[in-house]
Amino acid sequence: MDKTRQSKLRFPILLGLSLVAGLAAAVLAWWPGSTQPASADFPHAGVDLSIGVGSTCDSTAGPMKCTLQPGATFTMDFKVNALPAEFGYGGYDASIDYTGVTVKEASLVQTGAGVWPGCVFNAFDFTQPGHIAAACAFGIGAQPATYTGVMMHVDFNCVASGTVTLLQGEGASDLVDENLVPHGEASANEVLTINCGAAPPPSPTPCDGPCPTATPTNTQPPPTNTPIPPTATPVPPTTVAPTSVPTTTQPTPTQGAAPTVTALPVLAKTGSGGLGPPVDNDTAALWLAAVSLLSLAAASLTALKWRLARSR
Fold this sequence. Notes:
By secondary structure, this protein is α+β, with helices and mostly antiparallel strands. The protein is built from two helices and 15 strands. It folds into two domains: 3-196, Immunoglobulin-like; 246-312, no CATH class. The chain is rod-shaped, with a radius of gyration of 68 Å.
């Protein structure tokens, strides 16, 4: 990191702490035989600093990838996660780089609810593109702090995927004790990869994956009660045999006898002039009697003529 930017970062907290130490620090520095302040303490075992987005994406476990929706606003926290025993601090320095995403400067919170309650003299710098410098010192007469949690937070817009990096080591992010000595982690920076524009996860299916194609079953349709129309079967006409009319056979006329007359079946005459079918027995008997009389009369005349002819 640029040494000028590092010195700018430490200047606000040193100025704040000087209000507390003030004269005492100057006297100690120049009093004959006094012990001089120790140099920077990096790494200080047990000091754990990190940045995080939400509760699951935190740099303390190593490089992390935070997935967000396009254009979403997210909050980055600068945190003290752990401190060694019997260690207290009077202020902090936070040095953060960012790419892709854009910072919302007015959203920076260093005092009040949700951040380090001991912060009194705060300072910040957004003048360097892609960089945030923030610092704060405790109040005059305050005891060294042992607070762990969020020290400050600031919002970003997820306009494009990028990174947010906590710069570590001497001259970067640290905790400062009442003797103005910085303490922190090693010089390995901690990086959050910000993924903007990730599609939402697919909705789970009832089959927990592609569902198999249903196999059709051979289901017979229910029978329908359809009436069957009656079939007309032609019936052959019944043939009525004609009623036979008994005939009377007359003996062949011999010499001196009248000729025999054979009675024929009599057919009833229809109104149209034709002959109809045989009539019933009573009617036929009447006709037969009439014809027989006529036949007898004719036979008698014939016999009479024959006799007359013989007599001549």
